[in-house]
């Protein structure tokens, strides 16, 4: 007996939805995690944030979907023609009965995910003007406090602290500890930059109390994966949001990150960043030392120039004649004093010899009396002679002092010291009458200290000077 094709029990047909649901359950159970490699085509980024594209090879194609929570973790943006390796789970889109791959991770094949992500993010941010030189902020000349956004356990922190302690005495350090690698480290770095700006916000209106002058963001060297968190878009935007100038110091000199492009200044290493902060103080100290040396040399030059002018003035014929007369007077006084002393000594010697001869001719008794009397007279005469000699010396000394005073009064220098001045024409000729110059002529006036160059506005003869109004 033939069975009916539409047996209610044995041959109940499945609805399309039921069949599709069973297929979906089987596919999802069988293909929970698969890797697929191929070329991307028909890529579309939906306004919802999801990505829709097709992965194909020469013989087949596979519809793929990458939902927003998953593509937020992917380090690059897919594009048509890019060869990729995708990991995900296979499912069935029931409304159309099509199977598709729900992509959970995506890596480019060949170029490397990090390089592609770096180049795409760099070009996109550059197109927004985030790296323009016109928006770069200058560093302060003498920063007083610097914030370091880095790891507490890294060698970069110790290197920067050592350099700042060795090369500057005025910079204080504020440390914002963060992770510098690993998932989520970029967000920590961005939050630390924002937190420093918020902390310093209350001091912006008072530069004298400005709490942070510059921020150094960085870490030591490592692989591209180790440095990747400094390529995070959040870090670049936090740097540009900062009101405080930011120095990027990531890795070694050959390492470049998105943070380097966004920062106001890139330092090749963390140590170089610390040296940049301390350079202004070193340069200022060196400039002060240089100016001090220049000032000392200028002062010495002025002293030498004035000394030469003084010597030139002292060597003038008029002053030399005065000095010669003074020296001649001193010499004559010394000679007179020496002659007077010699005359006194000879006179005493003659009298002593006469006394001795007389003493020998007289008897002892008379000699004693005469000797005593003669000695008394001798003492009196000697006292008188000394008194006369002293009087003579004092008189000659007084005359010498008067002569010296007279000579000093005749000295042009003494006249100048009393407030007078010597007027000369431009050729150095001394002016003795007002009619020797004309109105508008230039004359030189020599003072006790220095010279004046003057212009004659009016002249007055001696006759006009002593006229009296009637």
The secondary structure category is alpha/beta
Mean pLDDT: 81
Shape: rod-shaped
| Count of strand segments | 13
| Main sheet: strand order | 1-2-3-5-4
Distance between the termini: 174 Å
- Can you tell me the CATH topology of the largest domain? Rossmann fold
- Helical content stands at 40-55%
What would you report as the Rg, rounded to the nearest angstrom? 55 Å
Order of helices and strands: HEEEHEEHEHEHEHEHEHHHHEEEH
CATH H-level homologous superfamily name of the largest domain: Response regulator
Low-confidence stretches: none
How many strands, which pairing sense, and closed or not: the largest β-sheet?
5 strands, mixed, barrel
The structural domain count equals 4
- CATH architectural label of the largest domain: 3-Layer(aba) Sandwich
Number of helices: 12
Summarize the structure.
With 470 residues, this protein is an alpha/beta fold. The protein has helices at residues 16-30, 68-71, 113-127, 155-167, 185-200, 233-241, 258-262, 270-314, 317-361, 364-410, 412-417, 462-465; strands at 34-45, 51-56, 61-66, 83-93, 98-108, 145-150, 172-177, 214-219, 246-250, 265-266, 422-425, 442-446, 451-455.
Chain-wise SSE layout:
Layout: H1 16-30, E1 34-45, E2 51-56, E3 61-66, H2 68-71, E4 83-93, E5 98-108, H3 113-127, E6 145-150, H4 155-167, E7 172-177, H5 185-200, E8 214-219, H6 233-241, E9 246-250, H7 258-262, E10 265-266, H8 270-314, H9 317-361, H10 364-410, H11 412-417, E11 422-425, E12 442-446, E13 451-455, H12 462-465
Parallel strand pairs: 3-5, 6-7, 6-8, 8-9, 9-10
Antiparallel strand pairs: 1-2, 1-4, 2-3, 4-5, 11-12, 12-13
Helix pairs in contact: 4-8, 5-6, 9-10
């Amino acid at each position: 007996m033939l069975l009916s094709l539409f047996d209610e029990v044995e041959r109940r047909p499945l609805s399309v939805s039921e069949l599709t649901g069973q297929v979906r359950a089987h596919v999802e159970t069988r293909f929970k995690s698969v890797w697929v490699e191929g070329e991307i085509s028909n890529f579309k980024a939906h306004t919802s944030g999801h990505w829709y594209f097709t992965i194909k090879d020469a013989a087949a194609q596979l519809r793929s979907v990458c939902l927003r929570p998953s593509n937020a973790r992917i380090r690059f943006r897919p594009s048509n023609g890019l060869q990729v390796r995708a990991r995900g789970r296979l499912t069935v889109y029931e409304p159309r009965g099509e199977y598709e791959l729900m992509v959970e991770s995506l890596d480019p094949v060949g170029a490397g995910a990090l390089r592609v992500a770096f180049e795409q993010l760099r070009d996109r941010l550059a197109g927004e003007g985030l790296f323009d030189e016109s928006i770069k902020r200058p560093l302060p000349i003498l920063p007083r406090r610097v914030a370091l956004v880095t790891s507490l356990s890294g060698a970069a922190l110790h290197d920067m602290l050592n350099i700042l302690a060795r090369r500057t005495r005025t910079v204080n350090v504020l440390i914002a500890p963060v992770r510098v690698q690993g998932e989520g480290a970029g967000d920590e770095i961005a939050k630390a930059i924002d937190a420093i700006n918020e902390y310093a916000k209350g001091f912006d209106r008072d530069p004298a109390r400005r709490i942070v002058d510059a921020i150094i963001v960085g870490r030591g060297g490592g692989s591209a994966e180790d440095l990747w968190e400094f390529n995070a878009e959040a870090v670049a935007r936090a740097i540009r949001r900062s009101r405080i100038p930011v120095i990027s110091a990531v890795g070694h000199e050959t390492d470049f990150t998105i943070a380097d492009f966004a920062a106001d200044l890139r330092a090749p290493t963390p140590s170089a960043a610390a040296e940049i902060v301390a350079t202004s103080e070193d340069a200022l100290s060196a400039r002060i030392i240089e100016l001090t040396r220049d000032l000392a040399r200028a002062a010495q030059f002025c002293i030498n120039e004035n000394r030469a002018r003084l010597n030139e003035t002292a060597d003038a014929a008029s002053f030399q004649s005065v000095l010669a007369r003074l020296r001649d007077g001193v010499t004559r006084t010394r000679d007179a004093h020496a002659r007077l002393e010699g005359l006194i000594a000879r006179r005493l010697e003659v009298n002593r010899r006469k006394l001795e001869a007389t003493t020998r001719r007289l008897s002892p008794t008379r000699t004693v009396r005469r000797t005593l009397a003669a000695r008394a007279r001798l003492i009196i005469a000697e006292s008188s002679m000394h008194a006369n000699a002293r009087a003579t010396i004092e008189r000659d000394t007084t005359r010498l002092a008067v002569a010296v005073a007279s000579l000093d009064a005749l000295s042009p220098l003494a006249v100048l010291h009393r407030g007078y001045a010597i007027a000369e024409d431009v050729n150095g000729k001394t002016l003795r009458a007002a009619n020797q110059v004309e109105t508008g002529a230039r004359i030189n006036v020599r003072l006790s200290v220095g010279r004046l160059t003057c212009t004659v506005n009016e002249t007055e003869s001696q006759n006009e000077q002593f006229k009296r109004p009637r």
